[in-house]
């Protein structure tokens, strides 16, 4: 099968949904942030701190090209920042946007310390990042799933229906 790429803002649930989706339908799964941390033996926060966002984006682009053999890929929220990432995903599979509202994201990330782009931004910067990314996700996605007030199980079932997947 072609790869299912889960995209969406930080905190939208891509990693959790990807994991449960893969377990429910017996699919191979990788989370790009975990893949990068293992490959470079460094935490994402440390990569940002030591080398900056640009270097992280280079790592992310390389990683994306290396994971297209998996059935399900949970991407990082900034994967849409580079157009060539969108091309990689379009060529290798189908893009599913997990859309959570700004309010939901803001609530979920309130106490989070592992997202440098979120924790180092003021409210207005967060709002404009959310709005800009929301446009980018919507433009490139083949499918969009609203996740507010839905259970993980519901979201996983929605994705299973889209791809006519069979439960194990
Ligand atoms: C980022 C999102 C993070 C991680 C990095 C940058 C972003 O992944 O890749 O901190 O630019 O939105 P999650 O979406 O899994 O939080």
Strand order of the largest sheet: 2-3-1-4-5
Proportion of strand residues: 5-15%
- What's the total number of strands? 5
Span between termini: 16 Å
Biggest beta sheet attributes: 5 strands, parallel
Helical content band:
55-70%
Helix/strand-derived category reads alpha/beta
Bound molecules: shikimate-3-phosphate
Order of helices and strands: EHEHHHEHEHHHEH
Explain this structure to me?
- This protein starts with a strand and ends in a 6-residue tail after the last helix.
- Helices cover 55% and strands 13% of the residues.
- The protein is built from 9 helices and 5 strands; from the N terminus they run βαβαααβαβαααβα.
- It has helices at residues 14-25, 32-40, 44-51, 53-66, 83-92, 102-108, 116-119, 123-140, 152-162, and strands spanning 3-7, 29-31, 72-74, 93-99, 143-146.
- Strands 2-3-1-4-5 form a 5-stranded parallel beta sheet, sandwiched between helices.
- The chain is of the alpha/beta class.
- The structure holds shikimate-3-phosphate.
């Amino acid at each position: 099968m072609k790869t299912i790429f889960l995209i969406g803002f930080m905190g939208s649930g891509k990693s959790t949904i990807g994991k449960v989706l893969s377990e429910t339908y017996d699919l191979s799964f990788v989370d790009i942030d975990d893949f990068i941390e293992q490959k470079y033996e460094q935490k994402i926060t440390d990569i940002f701190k030591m080398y900056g966002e640009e270097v992280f984006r280079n790592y992310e682009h390389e990683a994306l090209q290396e994971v297209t053999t998996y059935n399900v890929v949970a991407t990082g929220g900034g994967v849409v920042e580079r157009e060539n990432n969108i091309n990689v995903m379009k060529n290798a599979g189908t893009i599913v946007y997990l859309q959570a509202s700004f309010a939901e994201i803001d609530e979920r990330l309130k106490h989070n310390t592992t997202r440098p782009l979120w924790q180092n931004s003021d409210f207005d910067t967060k709002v404009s990042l959310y709005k800009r990314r929301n446009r980018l996700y919507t433009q490139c996605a083949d499918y969009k799933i609203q996740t507010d007030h839905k259970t993980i199980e519901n979201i996983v079932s929605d994705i299973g229906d889209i791809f006519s997947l069979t439960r194990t």
